[in-house]
Model the fold of this input.
Amino acid sequence: ILNVEQSPQSLHVQEGDSTNFTCSFPSSNFYALHWYRWETAKSPEALFVMTLNGDEKKKGRISATLNTKEGYSYLYIKGSQPEDSATYLCAFYFHSGAGSYQLTFGKGTKLSVIP
Amino acid sequence: KAGVTQTPRYLIKTRGQQVTLSCSPISGHRSVSWYQQTPGQGLQFLFEYFSETQRNKGNFPGRFSGRQFSNSRSEMNVSTLELGDSALYLCASSLDSPDTGFTDTQYFGPGTRLTVL
Done:
């Protein structure tokens, strides 16, 4: 089992602040990285699917970057809003041999945006 | 387009019993993945099915099994339930292709909350 670390574990920010989180993963056997937002009592919602080193993705005020050589991805939220309050999960997909893949989720970063 | 649906939403079983959970993917999606969410272990990958074949598998014991039907609907079965199997079981569907998996956006269902007494 490969470890995926997310930091920080939790974060409280004021409305309007910009923030960022980190997802660290093993740099070998990389296949893909997914970011999800998971609000309480809802299903995880996909934010980004990232597959190439140097990928940068953007969706509204949220963006993400990927560095597969050093094994990390950053998620940025610009001008946080209360509706951004959620747990942000990354999932690391890797080759596990013989044409198959495995995936490991991080524990998530819980973001609370204070109005 | 209807989203991913899972039935039942809640289930209570006793140790030693077996359970079957169902997942209907978004129309046109051929990949269905199953996940287990527990407070202690977080979200863990169980397996992925594509075109009625198990394509990828996580590190769960053989008591956890699944299958996919020709209409892409999938079922997950847990035999000989243990207390530790109490969890939220999520399924997700995606388009994906025969040659690759997990490179398309995954859409999650609402989950089935299983309680084992």
Observations:
- Chain A has a mean pLDDT of 93.
- Residues 28 and 84 of chain A are 32 Å apart (CA to CA).
